[in-house]
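Protocol step 6 of 9: fold each sequence in the batch and record its structure tokens directly after the sequence line. For illustration, a two-sequence batch is reproduced in full.

Sequence one:
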Amino acid sequence: YVNSDLNDVLGNFIHRTLTFIINYFQGKVPERGSLDDDDEDLIKAIKESTQEAAHLIESFKFKAALKEIIGLARKGNNYLSIKEPWHQIKENKQKTGTTLNLSIQVVRSLAILLSPFIPNSSKKIWNLLNIQKDITKALWVEAADLLIPSGHTILAPKPLFFKVEVKKLKAELDSLRQGQKLEKTKQSSPSEQITIDEFKKIDIRIGKIVEAQSIKGADKLIKLSIDIGDRKIQCVAGLKPYYTLEELTGKFLAVLINLQPTKLKGILSEGMILAAVTKDSVKILSPDGEIKLGSKIF
């Protein structure tokens, strides 16, 4: 779709239309004169494609809606091929003006219709048309109207889409997959092993949070006072996005108590809360029932 629809159909039609207006009419939209059957057919296509695309989107048939919109760009290309403005300009400049006036109306309609699908590219098209109104404020029904006035100045076109080199893309995709495979292997590999004597140095105890406080100026950190039986220790943990202060208060948990104390946001932290961590979740490790505070975990 990138090469055939976006680049060859949509991008080609928009670039040709804007370029002709820049070259033949000094960047100003020419006047629309008397209409022939081909002109009337294009105006009809603008209105019908707008209505049909709206119906398909309301029916959640997004792929069909996009196909309908690209079909309008294809009709615009066919219209230019029939009119041949590059030849027409030599014989009848007024008719060429009508051709390009209608073509630029199609470009405007496409910008609005494509906005839900490719918003950034639609905004670029809108900017090339030099329309001051924010495209996000343009109503869908306005896509059916011919609202660009004659004399309106457009900007010089720039390529909107680029052909994708399939071989290069495949190589990059294979490289990405290989990298993901290596990362997955790395993550699933056992951690560096330690001896039993090294493990015995770790002092993990059962504690109970007796007080939880927010820390001023910290979005994630919470200050916890934890009872570990023979004393209370203070810990600072990044739990704010995952627990309320009320949920934490009174909670039993496992806490590493012989970790060298450190300061976070200027507040002393004397231990580390043990928790299971995923990409978007943190769950504190807790015993499956009440147990004496200070009990050692082996």
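Sequence two, same batch, same settings:
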Amino acid sequence: MQGIPHKGRHRLYGYDSDWQTKPDEAAIVREMFQRRARGESTTSIARDLTTRGVKTVSGRDWTSGVLGETLTKHVYAGKVTFKGEVVADSIYPALVDLDTFNAAQSNLANDSAGTNTRRYLLSGILRCEHCLSPMKGNPSNQMYRCSTTYGGCGRLSVRITLADHWVTWAAMQRANLTPKRQSPTRDYDAEIAAADAAVLKIQADYRAGIYTLAEAKPLLDAERTKAREAAQSKARAAPRTNFATQKYLDYHRMNLAQQRAFISSHITGVVVGPAVSKGNQPFDPSRFLCEYPDGTKERLERPVDDPEW
């Protein structure tokens, strides 16, 4: 059976007044549902939308309350409700699939899960490989666990510090924010030294009477230009706090909600496998299977060509 959604005083965000999809707003709606389904708080999502200049239908900033209410609208999943009960399929296009909608409702209703996501970086982002249930931070032992309290199998756990480190590293890599080491193609110091030596020789030749002042000046200017250009090129090529490094520093100045938003924008989810390291062996990041917004997946690997690892 199909039905027509109730039309309020204002149009619903994502649709025009005739219930036709507005593509730019529909993309934001899908993003909101996906992020809430992954466990991100409504406060974090609303703050991010406000930072990006995304406004509500009335032209105001998004708030946690308005966003939370928006996410409860069944019409986004193609359903029509009456007195809180689903009574029919909407004749208008859905913006999100039913599974994503239901996952978002589960997180909205679960107050304890909401508290957990505000305390731990990857709560709701990590999922158990055995049962695919979200893993939650456990303060008693500082582990992310697949908890039977939240319907999981209880078979997997991973230390919070290790998971936070490796998933943050993966998000940085995905965003191409980690500074890369670049070998200089020119020997700038040698060029500067050669130009300085040429200046000294021209000055000595001028004093010896080999050059007149008119002859020496353009030669000196040319060598000094070479030295200045080499010094400027060296400064541009030298490691410094560039865009990538600044983004890395900015990340570590963010609050928890902003860090979760950053990670969620580059990694849609992480499936955690069982432990494979034994004894004193280093932690094996291949336990983490990262899922990216473009639909690709990647199992993390420990870098082998970096002395820091």
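Proceed to step 7 once all outputs are recorded. Observation for sequence two: Residues 188-237 form one domain.
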